[in-house]
């Protein structure tokens, strides 16, 4: 008798409900200075939101950028003109503090960048995620000057937190995580200043649930 033909079982996969585009705006903390691109927080985020396929992030960020530099770069980048993205992250301000720029200027320029981020998100404030400025005062680079650097970073974070709240945009406070580097040098990259991949993972552990919450609605 002929054998019954074999019918393979259906392939079962976890459904991906959305494919999301992603724009990341910032400075060295966004490009992942001193770690590989795949270890930076934007790239780690792309694999950490359940049920969502996040495309390769488009990143506008360079080490040393202030708010003024980021504004200029966005205006010059023809690749993003007229485009919108499903997810937009914004982390900017450490170089404003480091270069001694005024907090008044930071507030003005941060608000401008926050409004730009909202525009890139198609006007959907729920899809914009502001990250606080890390405290680099606890790193070896700071050479024990955290008593000066830490309070100044806190002042700049007070500004970005206030303005983010006014705009009703998501705010993810990763500064306490950055302070853990005071007692755990595995959270610092080899340059003694920037976060390691391990620290970026801790940021994403806090950021990803916020992204998931907004996109499961």
Overall number of strands:
7
Subunit organisation of the chains: single chain
Give the termini separation: 56 Å
Question: Order of strands in the sheet with the most strands?
Answer: 4-2-5-6-7
What's the alpha carbon Rg, rounded to whole Å? 20 Å
Q: SS-based structural class?
A: alpha/beta
**Into which percent range does the helicity of residues fall?**
40-55%
What is the overall pLDDT average? 93
Order of helices and strands: EEHHEEHEHHEHEHH
Number of helices: 8
> β content, as a range?
5-15%
Q: Which of globular, elongated, flat, extended, rod-shaped describes the shape? A: globular
Could you describe the largest sheet, including whether it forms a barrel?
5 strands, parallel
Q: Low-confidence parts, pLDDT < 50 over ≥5 residues?
A: 1-9, 11-15
Structure overview:
The chain has 217 residues and is of the alpha/beta class. The chain is built from 8 helices and 7 strands, in the order ββααββαβααβαβαα. The strands form 2 sheets. A 5-stranded parallel sheet has the order 4-2-5-6-7, sandwiched between helices. A two-stranded parallel ribbon has the order 1-3. Strand 6 (128-131), helix 6 and strand 7 form a beta-alpha-beta unit. The protein starts with 17 loop residues before the first strand and ends with a helix. Residues 1-9 and 11-15 have low confidence and may be disordered.
């Amino acid at each position: 008798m002929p054998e019954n033909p074999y019918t393979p079982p259906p392939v079962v996969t976890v459904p991906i409900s959305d494919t999301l585009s992603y724009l990341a705006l910032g400075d060295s903390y966004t490009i992942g200075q001193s770690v590989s691109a795949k270890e930076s927080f934007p790239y780690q985020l792309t694999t950490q939101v359940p049920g969502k396929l996040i495309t390769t992030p488009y990143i506008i960020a360079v080490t040393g950028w202030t708010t003024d530099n980021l504004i200029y770069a966005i205006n010059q980048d023809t690749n993003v003109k007229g485009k919108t993205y499903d997810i937009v992250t914004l982390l900017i301000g450490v170089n404003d503090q480091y270069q001694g720029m005024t907090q008044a200027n930071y507030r003005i320029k941060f608000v401008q960048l926050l409004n730009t981020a909202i525009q890139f998100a198609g006007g959907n404030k729920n899809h914009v995620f502001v990250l606080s400025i890390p405290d680099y005062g606890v790193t070896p680079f700071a050479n024990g000057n955290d008593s000066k650097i830490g309070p100044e970073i806190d002042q700049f974070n007070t500004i970005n937190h206030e303005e983010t709240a006014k705009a009703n945009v998501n705010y993810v406070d990763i500064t306490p995580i950055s302070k853990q580097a005071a007692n755990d040098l595995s959270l610092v990259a080899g340059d003694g200043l920037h976060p390691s991949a391990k620290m970026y993972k801790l940021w994403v552990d806090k950021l990803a649930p916020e992204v998931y919450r907004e996109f499961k609605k």
